[in-house]
Design brief:
Layout lengths: L6 E4 L3 E5 L5 H8 L14 H18 L3 E6 L5 E12 L2 E9 L9 H16 L4 E6 L4 H9 L3 E8 L2 E9 L3
Antiparallel strand pairs: 1-2, 2-3, 3-4, 4-5, 6-8, 7-8
């Protein structure tokens, strides 16, 4: 499909582009922060981020999509990531929408802006019919993003031993 780093969408304030190997340090710094990762089992190591980055580069080749780097139009700075990846959940194939913005960018609406663009991409360009988000029950900010982009709470469950709330949205024809 597209070369790594290709812009896949633009919003008023963001460019969503494919990840590049050179994004490792930027993403690793964000997810190493304990406060940033408080709704995850633990912060991520550099090696875990490298493996995540490699998986996403493979997803682009295999599925035509994955997680995208969020670049601020204003200054070209890192504004987080957002994307769509295949997920098996309780024996069912799903397409997961995930987002994360750095702490310095919280409460600016960037996650909602990026996630909304990703939903549009998923339904219009990727031909998906359903997207889900898996969110920690205490993560009020991400739950609000899910609701703002049209997702509905479906149920609570454990995923790899961690509590989550499943949100979903289906393409309405």
């Amino acid at each position: 499909m597209d070369d790594a780093g290709t812009i896949v969408a633009e919003t008023a304030r963001l460019r969503l582009r494919q990840l590049r190997p050179g994004d490792l340090d930027t993403v690793a710094a964000m997810v190493a922060d304990p406060e940033q990762m408080r709704y995850f089992p633990r912060p991520k190591t550099r090696d875990e981020v490298r493996a995540w980055l490699d998986r996403n580069l493979g997803l682009y080749a295999d599925h035509g999509h994955g997680t995208w780097y969020l670049e601020a139009k204003e200054d070209g700075g890192f504004a987080g990531y957002c994307g769509i990846r295949p997920l098996e959940l309780e024996g069912r194939a799903e397409s997961e929408l995930a987002w994360q913005v750095p702490r310095a960018q919280w409460n600016r609406g960037l996650a909602t802006e990026a996630a909304s663009a990703a939903v549009d991409l998923g339904f219009t360009r990727l031909g998906l019919e359903r997207l889900v988000a898996i969110i920690h029950p205490d993560n009020a900010a991400s739950r609000a993003v899910a609701r703002k982009i049209g997702m509905r709470e479906e149920r609570s469950l454990l995923l790899e031993g961690e509590p989550i709330v499943l949100y979903g949205v289906t393409l309405s024809l």
